[in-house]
Write a structure and sequence with these properties.
alpha+beta; 7-stranded mixed beta sheet; 4-stranded mixed beta sheet; 44% helix; globular
Length: 479
């Protein structure tokens, strides 16, 4: 289960993919079997990550089925990915010794269509239903978040209690493992904790400072129970999402003690340095710590366009991270952004058009241009293209060029361009995406660059969805 959003339940119907005999055949010895069927496949493989992120690429056969037998399996949450209609989708599956788990997925309705069968099906169907239920509650809890803190607390206490009763009922009727119980309990508890941590950020009745300072005394009493080092759940989104927002909340509270700010400012260097310090001091597990550190560092770089602040952030991050690849990545982003100053020329990168013709990036810029980037693994490409079409009508003097950043995945890129009827004259893919993403510091994926008619950079780090973006376009035209 993906468990990305903390709070959508759609009934799942049981679909049998294989006979019971086949289940038994795949369940002999100290192995685990994982397989299934993909409806409307958009690629010919499924990617499976084990709990330590080792990768298996499982091919689809002529019947769009896949299967993998894992000898001496590591028990825990495995993540599987495949191309879906709106981008690369993923979910997780709990695999324990002697399990034989099969799934059926329709790429057009990924989460809602997913159902498991086989000897490990009950626990996984329970988890997927819990995920969908959490999504359904998302808007409900957001509505509750506009209530006074005490009333909000009563509402989410009721939700938590209901989920706990459902787990107790399931456990009384089925034999469940300690790992399964821990997963579900973590889901219930940490989604509840998460609701409380995000309350000051999603309550729109006052400023974050005022809300934090007027919360009931015991509102965050649960924090004494938080385990910061659950390494087996580092990829379990209810736990990881909680840690992200929990640390944001504590850092903001500390920031308010020494600043005159009253609202949450993601661009604040002081706030972000405090957050890095908290991650370093509270978390001892290297895997969790390094993941949160690079998330915080790249998030700051994405939100703060002032390159003068980057060196202090980089110094703090480098001191605390023990992952050399992460250090190199963040350092490269910062160095690239420094090279993309207004007035500079773009790096001379090679693009490939829809007809497989190579062309220089600089040569496709013949008038004021907006460059925007997208990937098949992010659904945001739909919104980005729609926004570009809207702006193109308002500003016909400006060219809008879309560049796909996927690694050697031209067939998927072409299928998506065709499926969504994107204008092929302005669609390109990088010939060398890794080099290009480094040179242009493409993170996050919704980053946009504004280039003038002479091919000089005007803004290397903007966003089409910003309320100030059209002001930037008017300024471009007035140059």
């Amino acid at each position: 289960m993906k468990f990305i959003k903390p709070f959508c339940a759609i009934a799942l119907c049981a679909i049998t993919l294989y006979s019971c005999k086949k289940d038994t055949d795949k369940n002999s010895g100290d192995t685990v079997f994982f397989g299934g069927e993909v409806i409307n496949p958009l690629s010919d493989f499924v990617i499976l990550y084990n709990p330590n992120q080792a990768i298996d690429t499982i091919p689809l056969n002529d019947s769009n089925r896949f299967e993998l037998t894992i000898p001496d399996p590591e028990q825990g949450l495995y993540t599987f990915k495949l191309q879906a209609s709106d981008g690369m989708e993923y979910q997780t599956v709990l695999l324990e010794s002697q399990d034989s788990v099969m799934c059926r997925i329709n790429t057009m309705e990924f989460d809602e269509s997913l159902v498991f069968t086989g000897s490990g099906a009950k626990k996984n169907n329970y988890l997927i239903n819990l995920f969908l239920e959490n999504e359904k509650e998302d808007k409900t809890v957001l509505g509750f978040s506009q209530l006074p803190a005490a009333e909000f607390e009563k509402k989410i206490d009721s939700i938590r209690s209901k989920k706990q009763k459902t787990l107790d009922s399931f456990s009384s009727k089925n034999t469940t493992s300690e790992l399964f119980n821990d997963l579900v309990k973590t889901n219930i508890d940490y989604n509840y904790y998460l609701s409380k941590e995000v309350y000051p950020f999603v309550n729109y009745t006052s400023t974050e400072r005022n809300i934090i300072e007027t919360l009931p005394k015991n509102f965050y009493k649960f924090r004494s129970k938080v385990d910061y080092n659950k390494n087996n759940l580092v990829n379990f989104a209810p736990y990881y999402s909680f840690l992200v927002h929990h640390l944001e909340n504590i850092a903001l509270t500390e920031h308010f003690k020494t600043s005159t700010d009253s609202t949450f400012n993601k661009k604040s260097l002081d706030y972000n340095l405090i957050k890095l310090e908290l991650i370093d001091s509270l978390i001892s597990n290297d895997s969790i710590k390094n993941s949160l550190l690079i998330r915080a560092a790249v998030g700051f770089i994405s939100n703060n366009k002032d390159v003068a602040d980057y060196d202090a952030l980089l110094e703090s991050f480098t001191e605390k991270s023990s992952n050399p690849n992460h250090k190199e990545y963040v350092s490269n982003i910062i160095n690239s952004l420094k090279n993309l100053k207004p007035g500079n020329k773009l790096p001379n990168l090679t693009l490939v058009d829809i007809n497989n013709i190579e062309v220089s990036l600089n040569k496709v810029i013949k008038k004021p241009t907006v460059l925007y980037f997208w990937s098949s693994s992010h659904k945001t490409h739909i919104n980005s293209h729609a926004k570009a079409r809207e702006l193109k009508i308002k500003y016909p003097e400006i060219n809008f060029i879309a560049i796909n950043t996927d690694k050697s995945n031209e067939s998927v890129w072409k299928n998506i361009v065709k499926q969504y009827h994107y204008a092929t004259t302005n669609e390109f893919i990088f010939k060398h995406p890794k080099e290009a993403k480094h040179s242009l510091a493409i993170y996050p994926i919704n980053k946009v660059m504004i280039i003038n008619k002479n091919g000089n950079i005007v803004n290397a780090h903007t966003n089409m969805f910003s309320i100030h973006f059209e002001e930037q376009l008017l300024s471009l035209l007035n140059q």
